[in-house]
Amino acid sequence: MEETLKHARGMDIVFFNYLYFYDGIKRKEDEIWKIYFEKLGYTQGQVITPKDWIQSVIKANIPYFAWVYGGIIDFRFLQKIHLRFIDRIMGQDHYFGILLFMQAKNIFILPKKLYNYRIRPNSTCNHEGIENIQRSNIPPYMQDIALAFENNVRAIKEYHFTASYFITFIELHQFLEHHKDTEMSESIRKQLLPFYVEQSLNIPLLKYDPWNLIEKFPMLQGYIQKPNKYQRLAMYSPKLYKRLLPLIRFYRGITNIERNIRRYFKKKKKLKN
């Protein structure tokens, strides 16, 4: 704490590096979010602006940004911008971190590892993978999802994952639409929003929609370059899509069965030859 406070005067954020260790979880080499500091190329103490930050993100080609534990925040600044976490979603640090860095005036970069981040099972980040989640790991705020999906743990987590990133997209989109710095907004829209759009595309294909997000799917218009027929219908006629959903699911089920049968006979034919 003393080390960070040395550099906190006049800063909205002090951004430092951290160590992470795996406790009961197998290490994954492709988890880029754990090494933001190194990816951004920060090697010396310096003061940066939000524009410097987003340019570093663009230069490093980082597809998403999340921040909450790797530094300290001036509480007066936090009160001034009225920033809060989005309730009930996974990955709250994505929306929080992006808006925090966008609205700061001065950010001090402290290239020291001052925090130990423990990666463990049974956390909301699902480090152990959806296939290993237990029913006991589903928190109370997801009970409406659990009820809709009849306690199918995999389906519950899949919906919550997709819904969380779609809600993050919605909130980011709405903020950027009214943000005064149009250049910054455009940079965020081009560099970071595509990730949240990509994670949202399965909303129309999920079996149930307890949070009624399909009605907001039209907000993705202009972000999806080549929507498939289901996404197109959901974007332009969400109410009609909801009415047709049972038929769409039936059609997709039959199509999948037909595809699997064709693959089976194709494979069998190859074996004979």
Note the topology.
Layout: H1 2-5, E1 13-22, H2 36-39, E2 46-48, H3 50-60, E3 71-73, H4 75-81, H5 92-103, E4 107-119, H6 143-148, H7 153-178, H8 182-191, H9 193-200, H10 229-236, H11 238-272
Parallel strand pairs: 1-4
Antiparallel strand pairs: 1-3, 2-4
Helix pairs in contact: 3-8, 5-7, 7-9, 10-11
Can you describe this structure?
- This protein is of the alpha+beta class and 273 residues long.
- It folds into two domains: 128 residues, no CATH class; 140 residues, no CATH class.
- The protein is 48% helix and 11% strand.
- The chain has a four-stranded mixed β-sheet with strand order 2-4-1-3.
- Helix 3 runs parallel beside helix 8, helix 5 runs parallel beside helix 7 and helix 7 runs antiparallel to helix 9.
- The chain is globular and about 70 Å long.
- The mean pLDDT is 88.
What's the helix count?
A: 11
Low-confidence stretches: none
- Gap between N and C termini: 70 Å
Gyration radius over CA: 22 Å
